[in-house]
Amino acid sequence: MPHSSHNAHRIEIKTKVNDMRSLVQLEKIKGLGFADKVSACKLIEVYTIEKHLTQHELESIANALSNPISQSYKIDGHETTETFDWAIEIGFLPGVTDNVGTTTRETLEDLLKTKFDLDKEGVFTSVLLLIKGKLTEEETSQITNALHNPLIERAHIKSHEKFAGDNGMDTIVPRVHLQTKQKADKIDIESMSEEELLALGKKGIKDPDGSYRGPLALEKEALDTIRNYFKKENRHPTDIELESLAQTWSEHCKHTIFAASLDNDLPDGLYKGLIQRATNEIRKTKGDKDFCVSVFKDNSGGIIFDDNWVVTDKAETHNSPSALDPFGGAITGIVGVNRDTIGFGLGAKPIVNKYGYCFADPDDKEPIYKDSKLKTKMLSPRRISDGVVAGVNTGGNCSGIPTTQGWQYFDDRYKGKPLVYVGTVGLIPQKINTKPSWEKQAQPGDKIVVLGGRVGQDGIHGATFSSEALDEGSPAGAVQIGDPITQKKMSDAIVKEARDLELYSSITDNGAGGLSCSAAEMAKECGGCIVELDKVPTKYPNLEPWKIWISESQERMTMAVPAEKLDELMSLMARRGVETTVIGEFTDTERCIVKLHGKTIMDLDMDFLHDGLPKKHLKTTYTKPNNPEPDFPEPKDLSATLLDLLKRKNICGYSYISYQYDHMVQAMTAVYPLQGPGQVNNYASAVTPVLGSSRGIIMSQGINPRYSDIDTYHMSACAIDTAIRNAVALGADIDYMALMDNFCWCSSNEEERLGQLKASVQACYDYATTYGTPFISGKDSMFNDFKGFNAKGEETKISVPPTLLVSSLAVIDDVKKAVTMDPKTKGDLVYILGLTKDELGASEYYDYTEKGLTGSNVPEVNSKKALDLYRTFKKAIDEELLASSLSIVFGGLGVALAKKAISSQLGLEINLSSVPTNTELRDDYLLFSETQSRFIVTINPANKEAFEKLFTEADHDFAEIGQVIEGPSLIIKNGDKTIINSSIQDLDEAYKSTFKNY
Q1: What is the DSSP letter of 987?
Q2: How many CB atoms lie within 10 A of CB 70?
Q3: Closest Cα to residue 253, out of 517, 556, 450?
Q4: What is the spatial distance between Cα 778 and Cα 277, in angstroms, rounded to a whole number?
Q5: Separation in Å, CA 283 to CA 287, 436, 773, 870
Q6: Measured on CA atoms in the order 983, 986, 992, 997, is the torsion positive or negative?
Q7: In degrees, to the nearest 5, what angle opens at C-alpha 548 toward C-alphas 542 and 550?
Q8: Cβ(718)–Cβ(863) under 8 Å?
Q9: Residue 338: strand, helix, or coil
Q10: What is the dihedral of CA 185, 187, 188, 190, to 10 degrees?
Q11: pLDDT tier for residue 471 given thresholds of 50, 70 and 90
């Protein structure tokens, strides 16, 4: 617990004038419903330094931490000049990563030319808010509860009178003090009853005080297998052995549902039988044009970029942690997927970050609770969205990695668990000193080396926690906070120096399961390992051995280092300020052995550890809904309807994210996330990763969760088509494009949900093989459910809609030929490519018309016809026939036209009478149908003949539907009837209004 300390010093730093951070806090407090009661708020930065220091040293520190012109400081004193009524101090709980504190400590070490003893010295940060207002103590507590997350933060309140009487706030050192004795407990699993065994799997190991350590997420069949193994070994397992097996066998790590045999027709499971099979068949078909180099076997997937380089791609989700601590969950996600890139082959450099968020409506203020007594409230959707956006911001910007590609999507069913997708593209030479860069292998005799951050209690049971639904028993210890500054030093030292010096033979990141997965996974490459657990650097003494082994504390990589290269590696990392420690050795004994102070506490057969998990045999059912098609009158004012649609959260602009995410760092971004003078979010972006080369990569994605309400097969088909089409619209070649799949499902232990999943994955196989786009990496998260209570105390279960994110990565020969969405010139002609159908099932328009209105006509993709269109489209770009291009997605043709007008700030005059359709459609359906495989393009009239000839000879559906005009309006007619006449200003304001104040 935090404690007051006489051995610590407190430095408070105040900005002399009204500063932005204070104003932001004031607006937050007013926004909580206290606008009439609170008149002022002053934020003071607090640094608590636990170290013996002289007054002269303290003065030097205070001067280094403050700006003498705009700030003042107090050392071991308190504020006396501000008038206020209540003081609230918020800081991190003991053991929670304090990134600013870490950076400050390193700054002071440089300043004082000394090192802190991390076992008993440190720097801790907090903020002090001095609030002026007529508030009761209860109201102040309400404000405090809203401003801090008790899962990771502590908060202290004092009235002005108490503050003055105590001479300020208390000097609190949030240091962890563990009194436990470091030992491994033996668990008598053999004599457990079936009830006790099931409790072990669900709640974890039971301590003597009756409490449980947290979920092992092991089902009975797996527990029986473990019991039989140790019966043959003629001994009881230790707690660290059970924990290690639980991490390694978790759904999060082993993907047991995707590996399970399904029904009678998929004995190899969803992954091997469909996803991997699709990629294998595609690669075989491509023959010598196969551009894949490493798929599904490493931390990321890789494809050939050019004769010298490989690009990698990986996307992860951090859903459960982000529901509990949005900032920590999101920053951990983005720095974690950065490490997946560093862990590809011998180490790729992260060059692009990507994001995607599925949130509940941030305007939803109705609370939900984890407990029946309504004491543990879940965070609000707005709090989650704000925290997640900020977490990825900090992780990416502080790492110096551009964040060029991203999106957000809203549905009420993400209230219990948001989906937080984070991805990273990497770059690595094809050869590292004549050897293929993607090949690596630990060798017997190599030293096991960990480098980067230290191990703490953060991230305990992260893998098993993410393998279950979020409920009252979800552990606080599963949340961790990433430190991008520490990781950046490590990343640069690896990919810019150690890799090319060949100082290690293999590398991987410490992600899910920590050392239990990284060291043990690498040991598969050579056949065994011995780890000396007491050598592992920890954040505080006396950390229990099983926690050291499975902790997911961030910023850590594990290497296999030949003994003769160890000194050189250690010297390099020391010079770069990266803590590096030898913790053991790789062997060929076929055993994974862990020791503590020389005593063996874990000794498992490698085959059993990695392959002993019994394979599941699952059955599925899938009853598709039979929704009636809606029958409602066409709106009389379609101009107003279009403006309303542009305000919808799944359609409107989210430039507030794009502006705060640095997309220019590293100077390689060629096509920005915001396009045209009107700064509209496009669906694809491009970078040129090799300095001096115009060869580039194009990135996009497709996601259509609401289509799952009708048919998960077609949902997946649309996601794939959208990911491909968005990239093609910018200039990508479908024949040089790879995909990634990220499945986020719910209640995957239910046959009906598994049936939905099976249909979804079948679509992935069908459409990937037709398009010839291999999957190179993927990830699944199978239990995105919340089980808790509503505000009335009633039990509630909130399951996300079955969600598939498909990401696309394509190589383009000349990025200068990329075509953005914004029309450039008055007089250019507007064309639509593709057939428009009556396909508004689960569309934005239906949901706008009546909340939850679904229908049954879900968009269906004709992949063979689309493939031909996309290849012809690429020819049009290569021949430079297009002036602008946009894929038609949510909101259909009407929204696409509006976005083109907003982006260019030029008018469009459109007539829908010639739009190709397969049936007669009323005006609103023609405008807002979400039929796939369609584009809106503009061309110079001089290119009209060549353009029409190209698409006519290829027998595609297309039509000229209008022209670009200088007038500031979007005018849409159908024949002689004007159905929309909206000014660009009105469209622009509607599109940007929803998140204007975020």
Answers
A1: H
A2: 11
A3: 517
A4: 14
A5: 6, 19, 9, 20
A6: positive
A7: 150
A8: no
A9: helix
A10: -150
A11: very low
Mean pLDDT of the chain: 92
Tokens of 564: 């003769």
Can you say whether the dihedral through the CA atoms of 746, 748, 750, 751 is positive or negative? positive
466 token code pair = 């993410």
Phi, psi (rounded to 5 degrees) for 427: -135, 135
Q: pLDDT value at position 2?
A: 47
Which amino acid, 449?
V
Q: What pLDDT shows up at residue 848?
A: 96
Tens of pLDDT, residue by residue over 739-797, are 999 999 999 989 999 999 999 999 999 999 999 999 999 999 999 999 999 999 999 99
Distance CA 5, CA 173 (A): 7
In the chain the domains, ranked by start, together with CATH numbers, are 3-173 (3.30.1280.10), 820-998 (3.90.650.10)
From 519, 24, 629, 556, select the one nearest 335 (Cα to Cα). 556
How many other CB atoms sit within 10 Å of the CB of residue 922? 11
How far from each other are the two terminal CA atoms of the chain, in whole angstroms?
A: 35
Per residue in 379-413, pLDDT (tens digit) is: 999 999 999 999 999 999 999 999 999 999 999 99
Q: 586 and 445 in contact (C-beta within 8 Å)?
A: yes
Q: What is the dihedral of CA 14, 20, 21, 26, to 10 degrees?
A: 110
Percent of the chain with pLDDT over 90: 77
**Among 21, 96, 670, 666, which Cα is nearest to 396's?**
666
Burial class (CB in 10 A: 0-12, 13-18, 19+), 119: exposed
Task: Select from 376, 559, 565, 395 the least CA-distant residue to 481.
Answer: 395
Q: Is 225 exposed, middle or buried (0-12, 13-18, 19+ CB in 10 A)?
A: middle
CA angle 73, 79, 83 (to 5 degrees): 130
Residue 426, beta-bridge partner list: 312, 350
Q: Which residues pair with 603 in a beta bridge?
A: 593
Is 946:939 a contact under the CB 8 Å cutoff?
A: no
H or E segment to which residue 369 belongs: strand 368-369
Per the CB < 8 A criterion, the answer to whether 810 and 594 are in contact is: no
Q: How many CB atoms lie within 10 A of CB 952?
A: 10
What are the distances in angstroms from CA 259 to CA 231, 249, 521, 891? Answer: 27, 12, 18, 37
Q: Any idea what DSSP says for residue 454?
A: P
Q: How many residues does the chain have?
A: 998
Beta strands per DSSP E along 5-159: 8-15, 38-50, 71-75, 86-92, 122-133, 153-159
Q: CA 208 to CA 285: how far, in whole Å?
A: 60
Distance (Å, whole) CA 628 – CA 576: 65
Are the beta carbons of 374 and 461 closer than 8 angstroms?
no
**Identity of residue 511:** G
Q: Is the pTM of this model over 0.85?
A: yes
**φ/ψ (deg, to 5) at 543:** -65, 135
> Mind giving me the DSSP string for 404-450?
EEEEEEE-GGGSSS-EEEEEEEEEEESEETTEETT-----TTPEEEE
Region of residue 828 (left: phi > 0; alpha: psi -120 to 50; beta: else) = beta
